[in-house]
Amino acid sequence: MSRVLLVCPEPLGHRQPAGIGIRFLEIEKVLRAAGHTVNILSPDQGLTPHNIAAATGEADVAVVQGHAANDLFAHMQPLPVVVDLYDPFIIENLHYYSERGAEVFTHDHATLVSSLLKGDFFLCSSEAQRMFYLGLMLAVGRLNPIAFESDPRLDALIRIAPFGVGAPRKIPPRASTAPDILFGGVYDWYDPILAMDAVAIARAKVPMLTLTFNTHPNPELTPQSRAAAAIAHARRKNYTFVRFSPWVAYDERGAYFDRFTMALLTFPRSIETDLAMRTRVYDYLWAGLPIVTSSAPGTDELLERYCCGSVVRRDDAETFAAEIVNILTDRPLYERMVDGTRSFVLHHQWNRTLKPLVDFCAEPKIDRRKEAFSVRMQVPERPPSILQRIKRRIGRL
């Protein structure tokens, strides 16, 4: 078995992780269960240049996600590296251009290109993501004639390892007279205002209906403009049925989810929704919550396959409200959707979804051919100082 170093970009010490942190905690559990020794570094748990150098010197393989890869590649001892691309951060962060300018995209682009050039094995969440990343790999030279000749499917380069869920749990009876709807955290690619307006309309037929959002545990990591807009909208419209609750500790979320009857997700269609696999979709289905959601290819396929929710393909509050009321007032339909969540859970256990990673860690290896066709990043030189220009002038004379 291998000694595995996990390099997580999200703080883990507060035990309130969002999607990336959840994934790394579950990766740790699965790898330990498979017999591997696991060490984990995160921003609040020893992610420093010194510790990276020391930990990689004692590891057989490293697993990294997102911008933490910059620190890993800068300070690591040589060893195989798995780059987890399940979260297409460069696409998500396109939303931040108006607020933060081009700096975010420039940083994201450099990080992603560097990771594609230096990683040895890659993970993604879906076939759509796999094709997206293979296109990028072709551009930087990782998908090349040598790689294709020995492995036409490129499975030795990139594999699908989607999000997973915990062990099946008992789903409690849920109220139909005073139902609570859970939205969750608000990122800038969601539309919380559409959700609030839809629930306001639905309350005409289900008067006790409420809607809950969760405030982010690490607001410094992601802009909160949509969350602020949601709070302002709720106050302006006097939506007393809307709640903004603190993020719940990971180990306590099961009991928290039991308070709700169903989940709601609203967002505009974009390239981000085409590529994303929502962490909360997996978590809510694990909790036995039927989901009403805007259309996104990955989510649509899951909900339709397991009959555990409803996809709304119109961006108007009335249509969402009608679907919410339809599910909540049709008890047999609601129970069929709850049964569908149980089937989903059985097929998406973490030890199944992470099997490609477990297999690679059992026999980790550096891709010795990764530089055969690699495209070098062009870094512009810093403009010469006045002193340097004088020296060059004197030299020419």
By CATH, the superfamily of the largest domain comes out as Glycogen Phosphorylase B
- Give the number of domains: 2
As laid out across the biggest beta sheet, the strand order is: 2-1-3-4-5-6
N- to C-terminal distance? 65 Å
Total strands: the figure is 12
Multimerization status: single chain
Which consecutive residue ranges, at least 5 long each, have pLDDT under 50? none
What percentage of residues falls in helices of 4 or more residues?
40-55%
Named CATH topology of the largest domain: Rossmann fold
Write a structural description.
With 397 residues, this protein is of the alpha/beta class. It folds into two domains: 175 residues, Rossmann fold (3-Layer(aba) Sandwich); 168 residues, Glycogen Phosphorylase B (Rossmann fold). Helix content is 45%, strand content 14%. The chain has 19 helices and twelve strands. A six-stranded parallel β-sheet has the order 2-1-3-4-5-6, sandwiched between helices. It has a six-stranded parallel β-sheet with strand order 9-8-7-10-11-12, with helices on both faces. Helix 9 links the parallel strand 7 and strand 8. Helix 2 crosses helix 3 and helix 9 packs across helix 15. The chain is globular.
